[in-house]
Amino acid sequence: MTTLDYPAWLRIDHWLNVLFVTLIIRSGIEILATHPKLYWHDDSKPGTEWARFTRKVMPQDRLYDTLDEEEDYHPVIALPGHAQLGMGRHWHFFSVIGWILLGLSYYVLLFATGQWHRYWPYSWSIFPEAWNDLVTYLSFNLPPLLPGEPLDAMQKLAYAGVIFVLAPFQILTGAAQSPAIAARFPWYVRMWGGRQWARSLHFLGLVAFLVFIVIHLSMVFFWGWGPLNASMIFGSVHNTTLATFLSLGILATIIAVHVAATIWSLRKPRSVQRVLGAVVNLARRILLRPLDSRQNYPAAKISAQHRVNGKPPASTEYKVMAVHDFVDWRLRVGGLVENPVTLDLSGLRALADRESHRVMHHCVQGWTSIGEWSGVPLATVADLVRPLPQAKYVCFLTMQDNDRDEPSSHGGGQFYEVMDLELVHKPQTLLAYEMNGRPLPIQHGAPLRLRVETQVGFKMAKWISQIEFINDYSGIGQGAGGWREDNVYYDKNVEI
Questions:
Q1: Is 90 exceeded by the pLDDT of residue 35?
Q2: Residue 1 banded pLDDT, cuts 50, 70, 90
Q3: pLDDT digits (tens, 9 = 90+) for 61-87
Q4: Which of 38, 72, 125, 240 has a CA that sits 20 to 30 A from residue 489's CA?
């Protein structure tokens, strides 16, 4: 074999790469749609975005939350489209796992077989040659190929950049957006300039991929669609006519996969949630669940404004409690425990010394902020009630009713969240009753909210009134592990 061959593994990896990259791009656009704004600062302050992909203007005379900012992109560009963040996340992370595994096999075989010579720029002279090639292209001519190689200098640099720089760059900036990684390795996020820097850079990487794809397809067309596709299908330049038809057939198959994925997601979202979620959750539990939060941002980094997500309870009972500083509020803790208790705020404060943590909040939609949350460790409450051995999960019931407080087409009912029992004893897991040194604001969950710093924000239930230790959650709500999991098909475990 010479470095100019097209071995079978390279040809197979090439076409599988097309499938995974296009799935990643479309599902990434769906994720972007839920908060179509990009920032260079971790406080994600409204009005400071450097790019926006929405025409919506938020009202200034009433409370709005980030769900109101969500866009509804068409399924032609987003997977699956129509404001389905849960589905978009499932497809994105599933495709990323497949793409990374494919990439690992590609790198191993690339270096094991010597094929890396095809793409690696082995001499600095390639840069002036690439410039000459660019000038030639701009004059609407084709430059000469490098001696003994199937690429010109400009193409070789482009392939090297995508394979050895852009692809790893996307993986690394994607990892920097994981709350579990950011909680355990804050220095890693700072290395990229912050969480919003990582998100913006990740988007720019997406744009770079799109530009590469357009130019790549153009070059294949201008250099000869038949011969080049023959090389990538048969490994040689023979049977160019057949290769042309087969290449179009492969592209049609990839499009058919996208159509099927979109239809499946929109018609049977629970099935997608269950099937793809099982794969993603396995990888998440192995790679991210062991990580513990180790955050301690300086006070100067606290965001001046923390965005609102979710409308506060509008019941008369809640409003009366709020007017009286929640002196009549009670927290019931029970279920599969030895010692069920009912606590008021003063009783909750008396359980343990007040703990405070300055941490970064990661909303599932993409915005972030840094705040100081104070309260009692959830582990202290668990030690007080003593969960029974059969308890596996903790269910947080809230005073928010989505039929009344935030009606939508997705469904109504009491907002609740379920999390695994092992998260109770994670460092910096709190039942917070203060924010930034003051009583918890109503819009952020007063009188009590959950903080689990390795999870995405929607898991941190607000306006909590009851905590139940349980061994199964299939009979609660629709059995998916939370209101958003039930109604908008989010994943139950959200370390990323």
A1: yes
A2: very low
A3: 777 777 788 999 999 999 999 999 999
A4: 38
d(CA 229, CA 328): 73
Judge whether 85 and 34 are in contact, CB under 8 Å. yes
Domain architecture of the chain: domains with CATH: 8-35+70-288 (1.20.950.20), 299-488 (3.90.420.10)
d(CA 302, CA 296): 11
Tokens in use for 107? 């790198």
Say what the pLDDT of residue 2 is.
41
Write down the pLDDT at residue 410: 67
The CB-side HSE value for 100 (13 A sphere, CA atoms) comes to 15
Whether the per-residue pLDDT at 258 is higher than 70: the answer is yes
Interacting residues of 256 by C-beta distance below 8 A, sequence separation 6+: none
Instruction: Name which residue leads in pLDDT, 196 or 224.
Output: 196
**CA angle 206–207–213, rounded 5-degree value:** 90
Instruction: Specify whether the backbone of 297 is left (phi greater than 0), alpha (psi in -120 to 50) or beta.
Output: beta
Q: Tell me the residue type at 149.
A: E
Q: How many of the other CB atoms lie within 10 Å of CB of 221?
A: 10
- The two structure tokens encoding residue 145: 């190929």
The answer to whether 327 touches 390, Cβ cutoff 8 Å, is no
Q: Which of 410, 414, 359 is nearest to 87 (CA)?
A: 410
Bridge-based pairing state of the strands 341-343 and 430-435: unpaired
Instruction: For residue 367, give both structure tokens.
Output: 């915005």
